[in-house]
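Notes from the 1:1 (GR / supervisor)

We went over the backlog. Supervisor wanted to see one worked example end to end before approving the batch request, so GR pasted a single chain during the call. The sequence is below; no edits were made to it. Supervisor asked that the structure be written out right there so they could see what the output format looks like.
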Amino acid sequence: MDEMICVGSIGGAFGVNGEVRLKSYCAEPSDIADYAPLSTEDGARTFSVTLTRPINNGFAARLGGVTTKEQADALKGVRLFVARDRLPDLPDDEYYHSDLIGLTVLDTGGTVLGKVKAVLNHGADDLLEVMGPGLKQSILLPFTLAVVPTVDLESGRIIADPPEGLL
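Structure output shown during the call:
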């Protein structure tokens, strides 16, 4: 698999010696350094990563080839990616968000509700943003075992039992 997965982003310079503010999207935030080298979305640049200390909302880090505040500031907003095959395999009941996006969502009766547009997390459980035919706007489906009893990645579908009144 040559799919690239976003594992973090650069928030700009941290200090004046070339360190960056690094925000990790990993389940265990410090694991981002273990996946290095990380690359830009277009693959034009790759960086080794050394976490120097935790800071608010992330880490101060040194990136290979970045030695000045100006170079660090120029990277503000750059998202960092790793090849999917370098990420660990997950247990049967866990999924990478990128695996869920685009899956067809069916209700327990087999009616198509739509496709997963995004996976959101605002501090509690994940929510599947589903957009589909007959929906004026997307719906947010709690990604819990009670509401989403089946995820079948091989067939590209999710079986859902939406709470009363959601649709």
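Supervisor's comment: Residues 82 and 161 are 34 Å apart (CA to CA).
Batch request approved.
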